[in-house]
User: Fold these one by one.
Assistant:
Number 1:
Amino acid sequence: MIFSYYPGCTLSTKAKEMDNHARKCAEVLGFKLEEIEDWQCCGAVYPLGADEVASKLSAVRSLHAAREKGRELVTLCSACYHVLKRVNEDMRDKAMQKTIHTYDDTLNYGGETKVLHFMEVLREYVGFDKLKEKVVNPLKGREIGAYYGCMLLRPSSIMEFDDPENPQIFEEMLKALGAKVVEFPRRNECCGGYISLKEKQKSQEMAGEIVANAHKCGAKELITACPLCLYNVAKTPDSNIYYFTKLLAEALGVGS
Amino acid sequence: MQISGTDVLKCMSCGRCSASCPHSGDAMQTMPHQFVALLKRGEVEKLTSSDFLWKCLSCFTCVERCPRGVKPAAIVEAARLMVIRQQGEAHISAGEIPELLDPELPQQLLVSVFRKYKA
Ligand code: SF4
Ligand code: SF4
């Protein structure tokens, strides 16, 4: 099976490792990520203003490109997923379609593309049972917590990724990989997001509370899908946080 | 009110949005439920002068948990956009960025900062 793939700016640079691991894991699991041509940065933050249009154009171009190929659009970065999915939802509105068309008349797009996070491909197209069969290095005895953050889950009416207050998708993956799953209450709290540039103290406080909570519940390692969560949380000593793709690649025998 | 695309009249002032907000423990802030109340009363100036415009994380917890479907985060954002658009104000200058950087910083953070602090 082939999916259109949107890597985004961070996975093309700082988080190249997440991109590499994901492609290798996909191969083992029997699907392919085909990078869409000439994609542009999605903007990382969904434009909340009801009158914002131009800032959504780059996302629309990628969604449109996937539709032209007749494929689902897969992404890994939490922020890209959030932006692509919400812009896609906006595009179902007729007035929005018209406005976008006046900005760029090559775009006749009505929200047809299905936007998927890599984890949803595992859940809905591969299946966690099949994933389990493919594991060559089970993560036996390792106590791992999944840190979700904000972008994947909220607002759930649009994201439809998982239960916003009690998500299970990463836990199911961890189970399939043979790890000991640690669920901690703060796994869906905010890490501080972009304020870590100017307000380092507040964001470190927030990340610190998340790590302390995970440790208290017994987690020795943490996984995430968001480069900004990783950056903020990793500032806390002993957070031992890394991308979920690293763990997946390790269990599937294609790590490093 | 138009920019935010929300209906503040639905708000029943329960305060759940503010209770859920990561900034709930911080003193002297205009909290999300107050943003909703101020907009309801048309006190737009108080909205645009609040420091909370630059504090909101867009974590969407308030949106998720509001029992009435009001979107407090969108109101904060609308006020922020008004300030940036009308006064051309930016919350960060290009000159102060380099000293805030470190080698681990992801591109995503800078892109987000430009969107949130400028336009
Ligand atoms: S989106 Fe903003 S106002 Fe709403 S809970 Fe998060 S930080 Fe608070
Ligand atoms: S949670 Fe919703 S109804 Fe309650 S105060 Fe906040 S905006 Fe109003």
Number 2:
Amino acid sequence: MSAPAADATAWRALRRHGVLLAAWGALVAVFALTATHFLSAATLQTLVGRTPGLLVVAAGMTAVILGGGIDLAVGSVAALAAGVLGIALVDWHWPVAAAVPLAIAVGAVAGLAAGMMTVGLRVPAFLATLGMLEICRGAAYLVTGSRTKYLGGALEPLARPLPALGLPPTILIAAVAVVAVHVLITRTVFGRHLRAVGGNPRAARYAGIDVGRVRITVHVLSGALAGLAAVLATARIGSADPNAGTGLELAAIAAVVIGGTSLAGGAGSCAGSVLGVAVIATLEAGLAHLGASEPIKRIVTGAAIVAAVALDFLERRGREGDGEA
Amino acid sequence: MGCSSRPQEALPGKGAGGDGSRPLVALVMKSLANEFFAAMAAGAKSHQAAAPQRYDLIVNGMRNETDVAEQVGIVEQMVARRAAAIVIAPADSQALVPALARAREAGVLVVNIDNRLDADALRSAGLTVPFVGPDNRAGAKLAGAAVARRLQPGDEVAIVEGIVTADNARQRSLGLADAARDARLVVVDTQSGQWEMEKADGIAAAMLAAHPRLRAILCANDSMALGAAAAIAAAGRREVLVSGFDAIPAVRPLLDDGRLVATVDQHGDRLAVEGIETALAILSGAAAPEDRTTAIDLVTGPDDGAAP
């Protein structure tokens, strides 16, 4: 990519993020005006405490979608990883330092299975991960005996705010993971290959890229991050519920798409997805503050997703009209 | 009680299909992935295994707790299978009524457990179905009252309810509101946690921030109570009390250290057995097809002297 082209891309990303940031600011303003106590340290603390799981899943989802795939299994994978984490800690008396890597490994193995299915059997990612969604949910029920597992305080230090920072380690871990994924997809050979595969798999193959390997790797990454998300979410709640994480894949996909990553693959960013998570989490918190009914919550959230995507589409079209793209 | 997607189980009991000497009882459940229904099914299976000469048993669960069409299909299959009785925990209080009316026309005895069929729908179908189950409203009121005893009139409380398309969720919401009204507490917020831990955590966190004077969060099941307790711990608002419903094993430590004031045990493992016993008694002519309310007990922590 030549330097001016890179500049143009960076400028577009900046403009896109500016629009999102403004939309998020407007959302905060609306809730601040309509819900007393919305603009408070407590709300911020809740957002920071509750979003680490969604953040890391959305980062993984960004990478998968960038590569032209999709991962529908993340919620079930997280539930399975949380169940295994609970069993390792409570039934096997494993130390945290061993149980946490195990949970992440469980996620990575689930991702590996999905990746192998897409590459080896040539099953589209949508169907392979739909299958894994079911398999992992079933496995989560199996390993937990369909029971919520109480973990005690083993992981609690991860969710308790650090006195010096006022932030819990979970959000710091999530931030490190998101930055790592960002570097991976923007600054490495793997990232360049991933974009190429997402943009045009056939061309990527002709260019000598091992497309299958790229796809398997990105699914392993997404699975491992779902495992990490399970650890972060479980640390806050202190229990592992085999029903947890239902709809997590939809929240993550919504965040990624709101963040401007194209579902067609090849274009997108982690920064956008972080803003997308901020929008989704703010919307959830604000509607709960207002005491909105379940139907209203669903309608408003759905409308917000459609509006964000429409905004992106219009903005792109406008740019094409300017002859810029 | 539970929520969304889960697997299906179809376990024919020994000699199911009926050789004419023993009645075949078909237990039609919601999701067997939900620990409440799993315990119920396990209770029924061991009951049958303990006295296999009395009846044959076939247990069916659904994949998705709210998938009414799937449960209707199972009811039809059980009629085709010539079951003598269908003992059913309906996924929907109204939508199952026509299928059950057809079952009755085919000569199959129907006994309703857990989630009560809608009285109006039954009346318009010209059907009477004996109901065997707990009074969810009274149970929720017990748990709410245990919290109310520690509060003053005028204190603010909030309710986290289940998925209110099911009758048991509505009954529990009513029972929690009853308890609050009787103790003259002010219900400042009611939202659905969709029966889930993480959703309830988000709802409870927002309730805590929006209502700085909140003194209690009354939850319609224990999973949501776990979520509310997490939100309270994260917000450092230890003065806010929590109650649940179901008495799942995971809440025991919270009861012990006071993070959960009360929950109620509706003895799910015995519920299907009581439904089956009622069906067998009606089939043998030993009992009239009448409603039976099953026991529901308050469960509190060790230091709750006020508890019965």
